[in-house]
Amino acid sequence: MQTQELATLVNGNLKGDGDIEITKVASIEKAQTGEIAFAEKEFQSTNASCVIVPENFYQTLVCPTISVKNPKLAFAKIAQILHPPKKRASIIHPSAVISESAKLGKNLFIGAFCCVGDNSEIGDGSQFRAGAKIGDNVKIGKNCVLHPNVFVEDNCTIGDNVILHSGVVIGADGFGYVRDGANGYLKFPQIGTVVIENDVEIGANSCIDRGALGETRIGEGTKIDNLVQIAHNVQVGKRVVIAAQTGISGSTILEDDCIIGGQVGMGDHARVLTGAIIGSQAGILPGKIVRAGVWWGTPVQPLDEYKRQNAMVKGLGRLKEEVKELKKQLSEKK
Amino acid sequence: MQTQELATLVNGNLKGDGDIEITKVASIEKAQTGEIAFAEKEFQSTNASCVIVPENFYQTLVCPTISVKNPKLAFAKIAQILHPPKKRASIIHPSAVISESAKLGKNLFIGAFCCVGDNSEIGDGSQFRAGAKIGDNVKIGKNCVLHPNVFVEDNCTIGDNVILHSGVVIGADGFGYVRDGANGYLKFPQIGTVVIENDVEIGANSCIDRGALGETRIGEGTKIDNLVQIAHNVQVGKRVVIAAQTGISGSTILEDDCIIGGQVGMGDHARVLTGAIIGSQAGILPGKIVRAGVWWGTPVQPLDEYKRQNAMVKGLGRLKEEVKELKKQLSEKK
Amino acid sequence: MQTQELATLVNGNLKGDGDIEITKVASIEKAQTGEIAFAEKEFQSTNASCVIVPENFYQTLVCPTISVKNPKLAFAKIAQILHPPKKRASIIHPSAVISESAKLGKNLFIGAFCCVGDNSEIGDGSQFRAGAKIGDNVKIGKNCVLHPNVFVEDNCTIGDNVILHSGVVIGADGFGYVRDGANGYLKFPQIGTVVIENDVEIGANSCIDRGALGETRIGEGTKIDNLVQIAHNVQVGKRVVIAAQTGISGSTILEDDCIIGGQVGMGDHARVLTGAIIGSQAGILPGKIVRAGVWWGTPVQPLDEYKRQNAMVKGLGRLKEEVKELKKQLSEKK
């Protein structure tokens, strides 16, 4: 595409040649001829053929620039055009094992060693890469991508445009038992389901357990990183971001638009309200309600308090010295 | 089943109609006609056709009740009858690759794309779902379920009624190396095994490494959640519960009936004694012995101490003010 | 092999019979006739037929000994000879799906249900165990082992002698999005690659994400444990050790010869310098530079400081008492 077309695409203001051919996106440091990059602040130099810059950018460049409010967003939009996700041919590999009762949409890619169980449905344009498997009575929406070795258990529902990365497990039994004295543990029923709404992306080897009796739900547009654990009956709202290795215990609710760092742990029946940002490695106690704002530490506190407290702990040596000095002065007075 | 039959099944005391037909379990809020629920305390209302209640329950209900000592346990028992685990047909899918030297029990389900290695044995009634694989010289007991894409490595032994959820890896090499100066790391031998006793359940994508020289062992009736890491030579006792994302380092011992929260980290050669309860995100140092009781924090302390210390840290601001005030008073005295 | 041969192999000093036949390695406690063990300090007794001991070992043994500087290292070297990794036959299983454009080296083992994508290359002597899959344009070096169900995504490069344990995912998309107001999140391009250098070993179910624009790199001789998360554009140096369940955020750099404990979390754009040792469960803030030495806690501090501070917190009760006493004394003076 040409620089003018790209500028139009992102509602940007082009400065310089409008007919430079752009074929790829790249970082500002590595970009070469034919590539477009973005900058959020001044930079040393670039070989890019075009740079997306903020509206009030003052640095003079030799190459054409496209100025926009949010250069990173414009760059991501352009990248989606120049580097569309791989489109696989509409084929069903002869090795795939597909139940006769499954309802298959149009233009599907179903790769080698895939399985589709009884009465399951797959929407138009979805892709099952090698070894992806779904159980019985599963619904997969349109234009989903199940990467290699994904497994979706019986009775789960996946919306449209959902991406499940390699090794994701949706709908395994939740972790619930009842102690039966000396006999050990009896399994509490794990007979609910998982519902994943449209436009969700879930990272490699993450696990979303099925509800015990009800459902576990991941809201529209939510993005989940690798190796995340979501327990039974958790309700994750829309447009929530959850970074890697975070674990969320049973029945906890994350409202829309929360941001959760990596390695966070949440106890059961907690509630994280809209607008809350939870720092990495934080711990939220069972039943806790976490309001909007930035939270940190275990158990979580508002970031300001956490910092103040941390500073206070770091100042403990001095405080101790002061008390020692006071004792000395006081004893000298006697 | 009818309400009277269910009451008898759980040794409960039926109040009301004994011939109401019950087909499903459900939560007290969602239950409908034909469904049974349980309550541990007073609740607003329910549409359930029968409710399991504690023995001294005073609330008057329109539907029949079954009173028992432990309603949740009775509910779980009834759920096992009304919702038995899916029984798959006794078939071996033609795509499965099974060594000629393997010894197969009766009534097996072996799904598509499964592998069974040389000299491996599978007990009667076990199920290998699609893509489950075992290496050579593996022993799988009776009535086990290997969910999709499970892998059990050579020479490991699995007891009866064991459930391995999707993506579980049993018997991968432990993480042990010896530094050889500038040459980097040489692998320490990881040639031991894993033994998993009867009635163990292991959650999705969890890993149990093989012993370096000896064995890693998971005791009878132990339940392990998703994404848990158990290192080489760890000995987990009987009826232990380990929540998601916990990691246990090499040669650590968990005695019978411990309860371990989520995201706990344990150093190597530690020992957690019977009756210990370890709070989520706790950290246990290498070699530490943790006695019965509730433990919290990193490094772990008894919960009471942890709380006292936490309160003290939170009171640091006031303490600092007091010291400031003392200094002022003292200087005024001069 | 005979004791004299083994002594020569490890440049050790044999004391006792040189023609005892040794067939296995074992621990000092469990070793039997025909087995060799090692000891780093005095021990009670052993049935081993030979023991590797430190140079200045004074305990008198009935069996032959081999004295060396580093007994554990010598033991590991001997174990490699006596217990070589399983060598699988040079066969390509008929069920494997291999692109016609793939370039296959010699003496390959490619097991059941493996996939090799277009234009991918596999070096001589590499083994793909059942269900291992690689995408298009992937390069796998010589003598690699991909354990069952491993997946390596398009365009990634793996060196020689690399071991990827079961369930490893190499090259899944990194976790990067740009917020587009009420529309939610737009995917930032994740079109880079992963390069894994020679002699790397990666544990079961670990994930190494592809670079967003550039590459994610794991340096030669680095060893990574199970369930580890390495984000986009991370640069891990040579001979780095990373224990289980650690997570490293985007663009962070680990220099050569670092040692990272388990469950450590690192923010993005941090840098861990050569010689740094990071204790388990530590947290490194984004952008932080961590110098050589031992580090602990969240946020990380030098171990000495961490200990001092911990002791100070534990002494808070006494400090509080002292302040109370001072107040009392001062008020009495009035």
Question: How are the SSEs placed, and which strands pair?
Answer:
The structure is a homotrimer of 334-residue chains.
Chain A: H1 3-9, E1 13-15, E2 24-25, E3 35-38, E4 50-54, E5 65-68, H2 71-82, E6 97-98, E7 103-104, E8 109-110, E9 115-116, E10 121-122, E11 127-128, E12 133-134, E13 139-140, E14 145-146, E15 151-152, E16 157-158, E17 163-164, E18 169-170, E19 177-179, E20 185-187, E21 193-196, E22 201-202, E23 207-208, E24 215-218, E25 223-224, E26 229-230, E27 235-236, E28 241-242, E29 247-248, E30 253-254, E31 259-260, E32 265-266, E33 271-272, E34 276-278, E35 283-284, E36 289-290, E37 293-296, E38 301-302, H3 303-314, H4 316-333
Parallel strand pairs in A: 2-3, 3-4, 4-5, 6-9, 7-10, 8-11, 9-12, 10-13, 11-14, 12-15, 13-16, 14-17, 15-18, 16-21, 17-22, 18-23, 21-24, 22-25, 23-26, 24-27, 25-28, 26-29, 27-30, 28-31, 29-32, 30-33, 31-34, 32-35, 33-36, 34-37
Antiparallel strand pairs in A: 1-5, 19-20, 37-38
Strand order of the main beta sheet of chain A, please? Answer: 8-11-14-17-22-25-28-31-34-37-38
> How would you describe the shape of chain A?
flat
Largest interface, with counts of residues having CB < 8 Å to the other chain, equals: A-B, 55 and 60 residues
- Proportion of beta-strand residues of chain A: 25-35%
> Rg of chain A to the nearest angstrom?
26 Å
CATH superfamily of the largest domain in chain A: Hexapeptide repeat proteins
- Total DSSP E strands of chain A: 38
Give the C-level CATH assignment of the largest domain in chain A: Mainly Beta
User: Count the helices of chain A. How many?
Assistant: 4
- Spans of chain A of at least 5 consecutive residues whose pLDDT stays below 50 are none
Mean pLDDT of chain A: 96
For the terminal residues of chain A, how far apart are their CA atoms?
88 Å
Q: How many structural domains can be distinguished in the coordinates of chain A?
A: 2
| Class based on secondary structure composition and strand pairing of chain A | alpha/beta
Main sheet properties of chain A: 11 strands, mixed
The percent range for helix content of chain A is: 10-25%
* Oligomeric state: homotrimer
CATH topology of the largest domain in chain A: UDP N-Acetylglucosamine Acyltransferase, domain 1
Please state the second-level CATH architecture of the largest domain in chain A: 3 Solenoid
